[in-house]
Structure formats: structure tokens, C-alpha cells
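#lab-general

N.A. 3:47 PM
ok so I finally got the sequence cleaned up, no stray characters, all 450 residues accounted for. can someone with queue access submit it? mine expired

B.Y. 3:52 PM
send it over

N.A. 3:53 PM
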Amino acid sequence: MRDVPTSAVGSPLLSTIAVSTLGGLLGGFVAALLVVGFTEALKAMLAVVSRQNTWALILVPLLGLALSVLVLYRFGLSEDQGAQSKWAAKWRTFLPDAARSHLTDDMVSSAGAEERFPWRLAPIRLLAILATVGLGGPMGTEAPAAYLGVATGAALGTRWRRLLRPAAVGGGAAGVAVLMGIPLVGTAYILELEQRHKAPVNVERVSAALVGGFVGWLLNILLGVNLIRLVVPKESPHSFYQAVVAALLIGVLSGSITSLSGAAIYRAKAWRAKPLIRLELGGLALGVAAVMISLIASPSAAIGPGGGAITWVESATGTAAITVLAVDVLRAIATTASAAAGGCGGLFVPFLAIGDLAGRAFAPYLKIPSDLAGASGAAAGISGGYHLPLTAAALVLGQGGPRFAVLTSLAAVVIAAFAGNAAAKLLDRVLSFISGLAKKPVVAEDPYSF
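B.Y. 4:20 PM
back already:
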């Protein structure tokens, strides 16, 4: 039998790496630039909204939800309306019964087959995101960043078909990395998210995600942008026992609250009600939550992805734990209501804020630094609520801090993953027992494509 030359064996692998690297570079670079511009526009709109009086802070996000629903369901079309033959209709025609405000749903459902990604719907969804997030809705910017990144790569790939999949994966990773300023968060986010559709973790996808994450991080540094604020722990726990208790309590509380919120959001988005009914009920719940947060905390804590709530809790030293927890739960209700009403945005950043608040509620009693409690709670919220433990771990390692503080946060991430899964299963059983609403368990069928 004739030996096969080593170069002949290695060439397909090298070719795959080269193509995926090129695709990741192309998709990542273009996507990161677009994400920076779009996110800066969102920040500028939020800055204007945040300077308004209390009633405007409550009413403007409701107006944003209404505009989002109007864009998606009045300007947007459905294939069963028969308008898809017109060229312009391709840019605003959704599949029948599609949840039009879902961003990650398209990323998850097309994972591993990015050529099916409906990138032409990106412009209409970006308008809905501007209305929801830009006008102060309690939803985040990471899903828009990833969505815009994947859409950019898929659109570029229509001209260079071989680069389509790596460009889409690299674009999604770059979008998140340029937003967060941490390369591995972008890489882990896109790979872990796409695993919900059993997308293969192969050389092509991993290479593209790594390159895209690096490109996004590099542009974050070169452009000097500050798109999102992360809480970095500056002080370690004072003892091993304190670290264990902190990780356990923060992981369980943060993971459970965000997991229950995530399960509620999944059910809300799957609710088959008319858009107007969803808007009325979701808007009512959001308005009530915003008023209550304004009364017990601050009006700025009620709007936006969560930065205002973190600023409030950092400045409100000596606030009772029950007050912090109340704001935490109300923020979770507000985000759930926004998603139910048809708001278009992400949940990663809101879950960071919800987890942060849950962690800080324990800080005075555990006698641990507030920033450590907030950082651990935020990472635990991503692990338990968004069900992305590897992304949460990448966040902890990427943002840094004292070694013992990092280990404490990592322990909270692991505990939150188990607590979040247990809380979702418990909710399924309770709903099935009480009202029969959960005919199929959320945990069994749910890809958590928030």
C-alpha cells in the first residue's frame, strides 16, 4: 500500500482554516464597524431619553414598544399575504406565524446552515430595535449586535459563497466582542448559542468565531469605544468561607431569578395572541413596573438595558436588601413585559443587571465588597438565566480582577447553571399541576432562543 504524503493529508485542514480565517476577518471587520455605529446611535437616543422628566421616562418606552409593533406588524408583511413577489417586499416579508421580534431565533434556527439566514429582514428589525431599545425599553444591545453581525456575514457571503458560513459566524462573534470589549465572550456567545440547534463545533466554525472575536475586540480598542459598562471586582473575599457562602447564595438567587424570568419570556414570546392584545397587556405591565421602580428607587433605574439600575444601586449606599430585591424583581417583570409586548432587543445585558442587583442585595450581610457581589451576580445571571455558562465564564475571565474574586465569580457561574435549570424545571411542574399550561416542558423543548 502506497503511503499518503503528509502534505496531502494536511492540505484540506489548512485550506479550511484559511477560508474560515478569511471569512471571519471579512465578516468580523464589516460587522464590527456596523455594530459600533448602530450601538452609538442607540446610546445617543438613550442619553436624550434619560434627561427627560419622570413621566417622560415612563411613557417614552411605552411609545417605543408601540412603534416597534407598528414597524414589525404593519409595515412588515407575511408570506401568506401574497406580496412576496414584489422585489421590495423581500425586505419586509416574514414567514407565516413567525415571531417577528425574535432576533436570536433566526441565528439559532439557521445555525450550521447560515445560507438560510434571512438577512434581508435586518433593516426592518433594526428599526424596531431603535424604537424599543433607543427609546428606553428594558432590553439589551447584545442580541442586536450578534444579529447584525450574522446578517452582515450572510449578506457578504451571497457574493462569495464559500465564505458565507465563516463570515456569518465571524460577524456574530465580532458584533458581541466589539460591544463587550472581550474577545472570548463574542466567540463563546456565538458558538454556545448555535449549539442549541446542534450546529457542529468544527474547525471551520471555531476558527471563524475566534477570528471574529479577536477582530471585534481589536476594533473596540482601536476605535476607543465604550459601548457597555461592566462591573469589575476590585477586592477579594476576606476568607475562604466567605467566598463559598457568597458564591452559593449569589449563584442560587441570581440564577433562579433570571431563569424564571427567562422561562417567562420564552412563554411570552410563544404566546399566540394578536399583536395589539400583546402590546396592551405587555405595555400595561411595563408601565406599572416602571412606576413602582420610580417610586422606590429612581426613574432612571426603570429604563434602558440596566445601566441606570446599576448606577442607582451603587449610589444608594445603605439601601435595604428588600428594596434592592424589589427593584431586581420589577426589572425582571419589566423586561418580560417588553418581550411579551413585541419589543425587539436582547436579554443578555438586562440579565447582567438583574443578576448584579441580586448579588448586591447580599453584599452587606455577607460583608463582601459590593462590586464583587455585583460582578458575580451579573455573570451568574447569564449562566442561569440565558443558559450560557461558558459565555459567563469567558466574561468573568475576560473582565479580570483579583484572582480569588475571579474564582468566586466562576463558582457562582457554576452554581447558577444548576440553580437556573432546577428553577425552570420547577416552574414547568408548577404550571402543569396548576393550570396545564405547560403541555410540553420548557426545559425539554426550549432552545432558549431569546
